[in-house]
């Protein structure tokens, strides 16, 4: 393949006959709503990520909303409207929106430019008497400094919630990202580490929280709760539990086909992550002495993509690189939201800003990222290096 023929997409399908056959098996049953295949995926997912419980939902964004919602109904230490949640100013929008949608106040701190994750040195400055949680995303496959963040949360009796939607399979000290706090959320959207069409998962070790998720996921009713649960006393007669509502819930249920596909995708996850890490090693060799700041691995990244930030550049210079990449058939995107504080949606949110956000701003104006894949992309990365004249 010549350089001119190389197409370097942002994402690609990780399916083969196994996923298609799984869908056909579901179609043959005629039962497409949440059932045994979703339950099997949840069981396999919890085992894979060393969590006691896993709850599948219809998207990673729904997972974030459901996680925030469940914390409002905890018997002990529930969240309340007006409580504050510390977040970084660089993440996907649905890290932030559920916090605001439940009447919580966002407290924005800057990121660490080398890892692109929340700057842990700013946590103390963000703390107030109203702080109740830290909602930390793991950016582009790279875990935040979860050990220090958990120590901070434990010291101040705060909830730690992980948005791990971009970082499935990442680890710190052999512990899975997404398992350090009360819960972690995962995405199984097409471009992510495994794909179930649309989908998301919440992992937790807390049984009460798990039961809250089960109820809130399905309209707030009791039907999917086990007979013995932390929320209510169920009638032995299922007729009375069919339409019994105990919480103001949602319909975030996934379909059976997504669960069946997820079972097959999980079997391949280790191989997908291994390929992504091999690609990352090649990427780092190519660009280690370049004019760009590269994302510094914290723990073991699962390498969602590869980011570039100009060390001494401008938005004009960045945009010129973007044009070159687009012309060369290399898909390129901003680094997540860049500095989220620039967005018009901010006027609808309750928030306060701690310190300056120079690093988020530099990532916003001087940064971009390209995709990584579950198979070798050495040719694509060599092409990338040629285009960027490294």
How many E-type strands?
13
Domain tally:
2
Number of helices: 12
How much β-strand is present in the residues?
5-15%
- Compute the separation of the termini in Å: 21 Å
The largest β sheet comes out as: 8 strands, mixed
User: For the CA atoms, what is the radius of gyration?
Assistant: 21 Å
Reported by name, the CATH topology of the largest domain is: Aspartate Aminotransferase, domain 2
CATH superfamily of the largest domain: Type I PLP-dependent aspartate aminotransferase-like (Major domain)
Mean pLDDT: 97
CATH architecture of the largest domain: 3-Layer(aba) Sandwich
Instruction: Report the top-level CATH class of the largest domain.
Output: Alpha Beta
- What is the element string, with H for helices and E for strands? HHEHEHEHEHEEEEEHHHEEHEHEH
| Uncertain segments | none
Which percent range fits the helix content? 25-40%
Shape: globular
Strand order of the largest sheet: 1-9-8-5-4-2-3-12
Give the helix/strand class.
Answer: alpha/beta
Description:
- With 390 residues, the chain is α/β, with parallel strands linked by helices.
- The chain folds into two domains: 3-10 and 269-387, Aspartate Aminotransferase, domain 1 (Alpha-Beta Complex); 17-264, Type I PLP-dependent aspartate aminotransferase-like (Major domain) (Aspartate Aminotransferase, domain 2), CATH 3.40.640.
- Helices cover 36% and strands 15% of the residues.
- It has helices at residues 17-29, 36-48, 60-71, 93-101, 123-126, 146-155, 207-217, 238-241, 256-287, 315-327, 358-366, 378-387; strands spanning 53-57, 84-88, 105-109, 131-137, 159-163, 171-172, 175-176, 183-187, 200-204, 292-293, 305-310, 351-353, 367-371.
- An eight-stranded mixed β-sheet has the order 1-9-8-5-4-2-3-12, with helices on both faces.
- The relative contact order is 0.18.
- The model has no long low-confidence stretch (mean pLDDT 97).
């Amino acid at each position: 393949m010549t350089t001119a023929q190389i197409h370097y997409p942002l994402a690609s399908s990780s399916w083969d006959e196994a996923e298609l056959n799984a869908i056909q098996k579901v179609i043959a049953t005629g039962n497409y709503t949440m059932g045994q295949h979703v339950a099997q995926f949840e069981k396999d997912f919890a085992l894979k990520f060393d969590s006691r419980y896993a709850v599948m939902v219809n998207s990673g964004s729904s997972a974030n909303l459901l996680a925030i919602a469940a914390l409002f109904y905890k018997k002990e230490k529930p969240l309340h409207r007006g409580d504050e949640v510390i977040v970084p100013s660089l993440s996907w929008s649905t890290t932030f929106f559920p916090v605001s949608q439940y009447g919580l106040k966002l407290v924005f701190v800057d990121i660490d430019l080398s890892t692109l994750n929340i700057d842990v040195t700013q946590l103390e400055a963000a703390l107030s008497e109203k702080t109740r949680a830290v909602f930390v995303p793991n950016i582009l496959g790279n875990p935040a400094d979860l050990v220090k963040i958990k120590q901070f949360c434990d010291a101040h009796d705060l909830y730690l919630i992980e948005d791990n939607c971009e970082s499935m399979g990442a680890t710190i000290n052999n512990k899975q990202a997404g398992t350090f706090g009360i819960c972690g959320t995962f995405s199984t959207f097409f471009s992510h580490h495994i794909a179930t069409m649309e989908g998301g998962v919440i992992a937790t070790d807390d049984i009460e929280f798990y039961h809250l998720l089960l109820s809130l996921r399905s309209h707030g009713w009791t039907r999917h709760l086990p007979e013995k649960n932390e929320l209510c006393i169920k009638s032995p007669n299922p007729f009375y539990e069919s339409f019994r509502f105990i919480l103001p819930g949602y319909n975030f249920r996934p379909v059976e086909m997504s669960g069946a596909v997820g079972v097959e995708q999980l079997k391949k996850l280790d191989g997908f992550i291994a390929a992504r890490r091999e690609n990352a090693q090649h990427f780092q060799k190519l660009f280690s002495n370049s004019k760009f700041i590269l994302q510094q691995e914290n723990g073991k990244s699962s390498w969602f993509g590869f980011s570039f930030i100009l060390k001494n550049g401008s938005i004009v210079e960045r945009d010129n690189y973007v044009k070159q990449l687009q012309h060369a058939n290399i898909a390129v995107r901003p680094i997540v939201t860049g500095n989220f504080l620039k967005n018009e949606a901010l006027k609808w949110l309750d928030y306060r800003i701690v310190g300056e956000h120079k690093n988020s701003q530099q990532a916003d104006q001087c940064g971009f990222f390209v995709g990584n894949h579950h198979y070798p992309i050495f040719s694509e990365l060599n092409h990338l290096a040629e285009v960027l004249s490294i």
